[in-house]
Design a protein that fits this description.
- This protein has one domain (about 10-150): Rossmann fold (3-Layer(aba) Sandwich).
- It has 5 helices and 5 strands; from the N terminus they run E-H-E-H-E-H-E-H-E-H.
- The protein has helices spanning about 20-30, 45-55, 75-80, 100-120, 135-150; strands at about 10-15, 35-40, 60-65, 85, 125.
- It has a 5-stranded parallel sheet with strand order 3-2-1-4-5, with helices on both faces.
- Strand 4 (about 85), helix 4 (about 100-120) and strand 5 (about 125) form a beta-alpha-beta unit.
- The longest helix is centred in the C-terminal third of the chain and has 23 residues, at about 100-120.
Length: about 160
C-alpha cells in the first residue's frame, strides 16, 4: 500500500534545526514527500540525522541548499509544492547587535520565503517563530510581509 500522503509535497525550511527536524520526522512518518532546506548539504553533522530518518520512514526527503538572505534562493524548492512550512531563522544567544544579527535576517529571510511561495501559487504557508516574535514590531512586520507577497493568511495563534 502506498504511503498516505505520497502525492503531497511539502517544503520545509531550516530542516537541520530542532523544530524543522521534528516537522520533517512527522511528515515522513505520514508519507509526505518533503523538500527540506539547509545551509549546506555537505555538512554531515547537520544533515545525517535527516538522511537516517528518510531511510527509516515511509516518506521521501530531498535536501536543497538555500540562503535565507538571498532573494530567489527558495524559488526552485517551493515550485510545485503543496505547502510551505517556514522554520528557518538565525538563533543564538550572544550577539552585540541583535537587530543586525537576528531580527533583520529573520524578517528578510521570511520575506524571501513568502515571495517564493507567492510566485509559486502556494495556498498554505505556516511560519514559525520564537518568543522574539511576541514583540509588536516583529508581528506587524510579518503581517505586512504576508500582505505584500499577495498571500491570503489566517492567524492560527494569537501572540
Amino acid at each position: 500500500m502506498a504511503p498516505q500522503h505520497a502525492a503531497q509535497v511539502v517544503t520545509v525550511t531550516g530542516v537541520s534545526g530542532y523544530i524543522g527536524s521534528e516537522v520533517v520526522k512527522q511528515l515522513l512518518e505520514k508519507g509526505y514527500t518533503v523538500r527540506g532546506t539547509v545551509r549546506s548539504k555537505s555538512n554531515t553533522s547537520k544533515v545525517q540525522h535527516l538522511l537516517t530518518l528518510s531511510d527509516a520512514l515511509p516518506g521521501q526527503l530531498e535536501l536543497f541548499e538555500a540562503d535565507l538572505l538571498k532573494a530567489g534562493d527558495f524559488d526552485d524548492v517551493v515550485r510545485g509544492a503543496d505547502f510551505v512550512l517556514h522554520t528557518a531563522s538565525p538563533f543564538f544567544t550572544e550577539t552585540s547587535d541583535p537587530q543586525k544579527d537576528l531580527v533583520d535576517p529573520a524578517v528578510n529571510g521570511t520575506t524571501n520565503v513568502l515571495n517564493a511561495a507567492g510566485k509559486a501559487g502556494i495556498k498554505r504557508v505556516v511560519v514559525t517563530s520564537s518568543v522574539a516574535g511576541r514583540q509588536c514590531a516583529v508581528r506587524t512586520a510579518c503581517t505586512n510581509m504576508v500582505l505584500q507577497c499577495g498571500l491570503k493568511f489566517q492567524v492560527m495563534l494569537q501572540l
